[in-house]
Sequence to fold (654 residues):
Amino acid sequence: MSEGNIKSILNEERLFQPPTDFVKQAALSATELEQRYALAAQDSNAYWEKMATDLIVWDKPWSQVLDDSKAPNYKWFSGGELNVSANCLDVHLETRADKTAIIFEGEQGGVRRISYAELTSEVSRFANALKASGISCGDRVVIYMPMVPEAVIAMQACARIGAIHSVVFGGFSAVALRDRINDAGARMLITADGGFRGGSPVELKRAADEALSGGCPTIERVIVLQRTKQDVPMKVGRDIWWSDAIADQCDECAPLPVEASHPLFLLYTSGSTGKPKGVQHGSAGYLLNARLTYETVFDYQETDVFWCTADVGWITGHSYVAYGPLAAGATILMYEGSPTVPDAGRFWKICETHKVTVFYTAPTAIRALMRFGDEVPESYDLSSIRLLGSVGEPINPEAWTWYHRVIGREVCPIVDTWWQTETGGIMMSPVPSVTATPPGSCTQPLPGIAADIVDDQGNTVTSPELGGYLVIRKPWPSMLQTIWGDNDRYIETYWEKFHGRFYVAGDSAHTDKHGNFWIMGRIDDVLNVSGHRLGTMEVESALVSHEKVVEAAVVGRPDEIKGEAIFAYVVPCGARPSGDDAKALVKELRAWVSKQVGPIAKPDNIRFADSLPKTRSGKIMRRLLRTIASGEAITQDTSTLEDPSILDQLRGED
Ligand code: WT7
Fold:
């Protein structure tokens, strides 16, 4: 963006008003929302204080709403004490003990319904098992599980005793798991023999063993849930079955009050440079905003069946599966498997069977399911759905329109929610009963969220249509606290650009004449593949760690379904392979990256060249590579190229 403001390219003029019937039943009226905006604008600390009083049960009240003495390491509700698990479970026992907290459906079928009373007992029992294994407040516990209720139970059990969890997505490789375990210095790993996804069992324990055998000196104990019943080795003295771990444990465990800013979890996310960052979230501020945004954005009603399709390995699965809805006392749906098993109607069948009322998914899933045609969803009764949500990347107007027409039957509002792992909760979104929504825009910041768009100097970009850096001008309760073990990186990544004046999200955005925000994409070298953030650096390091690779550059290429596809330019050792040799090496490198990082990081295209395009000062010309990858004509000045003859190789035309 150093080349000045970005001119916006999208031009969507339609505006969808909230449907009258929806407005009539809404949990939040336009007037109440207006009052919240007014209070937040006048005194944001007073606003957050009011929300914290209304929505959180405290063991000890806070003495200061916002301590900014060590900015940008802000502390929310300092002096206050609470327990997150008690706020998600125990607080409901008087009025909702028998209400279903979790409806679970496995990929192979098999439905479980768990009430709030049962969930509280299970969490307590498992919390006691953690304690019996020597885990105490502040210890790190890594969770590497399939999408089953026990994943949420494990997270809540950690929260109950003040242990800090770090959930690693089950699709990550052994290498990625090992790096995360070691960065966090985790004492325990919770995993499963496997999980069902995509029609066959995923081998989690095998990957876990591989990770641990590579050297994870801090891990003392591994708890293994039996899910698939596949044969897995158990290491004596280290590994214990989940069922054995809880067998003798009591189903009551007093929740431990912790400080408001006690770390609740770490979640690793990609950056443009170096290894993944352990984003650290606190307790009170995080939970407050997870609950508040859940209730506001998804128009929470007591009878809702809320289905967020995200895996607990991502932030969406933390805030809108494991924490926010449970704090509100909602019924959530969890599904273990793939959207296309046994066929592309699976999601819609689940919505019909369990009478899902609010459905929250990613644009990449919508685009993938859209391809199977309207007949698939139309053969199910989707009339229980009253609200739809989208998250992870900009939703293109075609996908929005299909979602609205076919899944929402033109009667459901759509909330396009913009946020990040770092923000902890939704920051910008329509409020479904109030906001007029143009397809493709996340519309407006929620009350108390000071989003803005600024130019290189940090001045607000006033004219609509001109793009700039998306920034947040004021701290908010669910903001990340730091990067685990690397506070300098926290400051450098999010605050340095504008000298600590505001949080830099790393996205570019513009507004329109209605003041709505449109996200244009990431500014740095971060890819958004199927709604998952991946650093180009991570894929590049994986490639160059292969013995046949000298150098690699990875860029994104627009992809209709995944949003972005991964395009890798590789300089091989020795002569550039061609024909079958080239094909074989491509296959080998794809498998290699999959093993190093995980299948989502596998390059879609690999092209070999004798060198990479560099400026005379030695910088790889990424913009040029992006142009070539997307098949567009080169308009950049290539005269500064060190070796202009490689252009044909990069285009694949030599
Ligand atoms: C990045 C954050 C937080 C949920 C999952 C992703 C992109 C997220 C939207 C949206 C346009 C979006 C941004 C953001 N993004 N939601 N509604 N519209 N872009 O979490 O992995 O931390 O990625 O996802 O680029 O910075 P994440």
